[in-house]
Amino acid sequence: MPEVDPARTAVLGVHWQHEVVSPDGIFGPLFAEQVTRHRVPSYAARVAAAVRSSGGLVVYTRVAHRPGYPDLIPNTPSLAMIRERGAFLEGTPKTRIIGEVTPQAGDVVITHVRLTGFFGTELDTILRARDVETVLFTGVATNLSITGTAYEAVNHGYRIVIVSDACTAATDDTHQASLATLGQLGQVATTDDMVCSLTG
Questions:
Q1: Mean pLDDT per segment of 10 residues, for the chain of length 200 residues?
Q2: Are 96 and 17 in contact (CB under 8 A)?
Q3: What's the rounded Cα separation, in Å, for the pair 20 and 27?
Q4: What pLDDT is recorded for position 57?
Q5: Is CATH 3.40.50.300 what the domain over 6-199 is classified as, yes or no?
Q6: How far is CA 198 from CA 3, 12, 57, 82, 136, in A?
Q7: pTM of the model
Q8: Buried b or exposed e, range 76-87, using 16+ CB within 10 angstroms
Q9: Contact at 8 Å (CB) between 12 and 136?
Q10: Beta-carbon neighbour count of residue 185 at 10 Å?
């Protein structure tokens, strides 16, 4: 079970947006079934609640673009599809974070336009202002934005913990392979483990 200082811990909820995890979102065909089958949002909500109650920081990352996509560089097939399909436009319902993990008072929401949460955002500044030492990860997808943002967190000097049942990918095999890799850089723990660590 990870040993953490609750007051110096943040949980980062990655891409809990309708565009990513709801069936009618642009990436829903990849992730929605896994999210539902494994009840991943319920675990993410438990982790966030435990972090809040123990004095830590809850942060969400979301993607949203300006009308006309002046902030989108379509250098991957997925990014090109966002513009072609008119997805992730700021102010539209599908860019919102899903109800089960809705941000609460005191939570922080980071909006970004690339794949990861630190790049081009104030995330590092916000974490340092709260003297955060350990960053927990929940969300989608384990092998993409979670992995990328976790690498960035390590490079910025943070300890990382991937909450295994509060994340998912397009397939179980992909998810497990990502956890094996990320476990070489930090810790992998279940929601139950993290709640116990945070609340004593």
A1: 91 98 98 98 98 98 97 96 97 97 97 97 98 98 98 98 98 98 97 94
A2: yes
A3: 5
A4: 98
A5: no
A6: 8, 15, 12, 38, 11
A7: 0.97
A8: eeebeebeeeeb
A9: yes
A10: 15
